[in-house]
UniProtKB/TrEMBL annotation:
GO molecular function: sulfotransferase activity
Keywords: Transferase
One Pfam family in the UniProt entry: Sulfotransfer_1
Homology family: Belongs to the sulfotransferase 1 family.
InterPro entries in the record: P-loop_NTPase (IPR027417), Sulfotransferase_dom (IPR000863)
Organism superkingdom: Eukaryota
Ranges in a coiled coil: none
Start and end residues of each Sulfotransferase domain: 72-315
Stated name of the protein: Sulfotransferase domain-containing protein
UniProt organism field: Caerostris extrusa (Bark spider)
Gene: Sult1b1
Amino acid sequence: MFLLISSQHNNCSKVEGKISFIGVEFLELFNQFLQNPLNMNKTKIIRGLPFPASPWFTIKNIEDTLDFVPSDGDIVIASYPKTGTTWLQYIVLQITSRGELFPTFNDCLYKYAPFLEMSGTSVMDNMEKPRMCKHHCPYNMVQKNDKCKYLYIYRKPEDTAISYFNFMINLGHEPELNEFFEKFMTGDIAFGHYFDHVLSYFAHKDDDNMLLVSYEKLQLNKKEEILRIAKFLGEEYFASLSEDGELMEKVLEHTTFDYMKKNLNLEHPHPKDHEGHTRKVDFFRKGVIGDGKKSLSSEQLERLKNLAMEKLKGTDLINEWIEE
């Protein structure tokens, strides 16, 4: 999940002052963001994979993420961009805190669930156990620990593509859909080819410390999926949710898109521009299934389906994703 910034006016002024957070001057970074938006359309190649060419993603932080070895008991959430990372992150936080922990984005980023490519790995040193972090790196590019838990969330490719496309628009870019679609098909975008990314984790679907989470199943059978996630994280979490109906309802409510949109959208630290428009930090767009089929042409959908059948041949994803 990324920081989404939308504005009714493109002329963003510099934020006055600084706030130090876990050793990070967040508003200074925010000012850099306004001057140099997170451009997913431009990439830098590191160890063969394209990463966002943005001051928010330093080469050092990316290299440190790839070299980071999780500690015993750590919880690692991995994903491709725009597949439900933040949603899963808050579900895990709600489960492990028994419905109590619902931190702001800033607190999450540097305290409760660092996004390693942005925050760096040193923030993990200040965290209490069980530690949690997230990243968008393929399985084969990161270091592993058999005694930590990995959760990987994935989503239908057409919905992922359109969510990624709209994400770029929300960042202030104006990509052309057909051009973006071609880049999605070839993997010429930040974090590479979606199918390769998914396959890198599906190759380990039977590992005891790996849980694959379908965005669609989480949408359609949320309670059952949350219980499945809780059981994976620990029997004590599963027992708490199973035996306490009030707690289960609390977790379900706190992880609805309406609740999260209402409670996680933040106003820009300098709330109004010179024309009086309030800028918002938006973390969610629609959170629906099927947006891709409404936005892509029939020809594009057919090409994406054919590529999926070619790349995913022999996997369970064929039956899960491909509708005959």
